[in-house]
Amino acid sequence: MEPDDPTQELVRVETTCDSREAARALSRNAVEARLAACGQVEGPIASTYWWKDEVEVSEEWRVVLKTTRARCAELVGHLRESHTYEVPEIVVLAISGGDSAYLDWIRTETRR
């Protein structure tokens, strides 16, 4: 899904980092800027991937951010600018449902 897909109002934006500190910083900065209502740091996780013609295995931390479609493009831009990876994982997933009070909270906390 593209960050500006008009069919989805609320989204989860996920990325990974090479340290807990970097993940917490990305999460905190996004929330402080009101680009996300909340951020969660999970990990460590074991990642296996191709990088520069070699299979790499590393320990990473996943950052999950909840936001609105209206703020998504700005959040993705913020992650690209702030990330330490040359090609960071940035995945946008639609939130198709959930507790209405929680979903309203995401909308409220990400207002400009």
From TrEMBL:
Domain of life: Bacteria
Pfam families in the record: CutA1
GO molecular function (one): copper ion binding
Transmembrane segments: none
Any single biological process term in GO: response to metal ion
Family: Belongs to the CutA family.
Protein name: Divalent-cation tolerance protein CutA
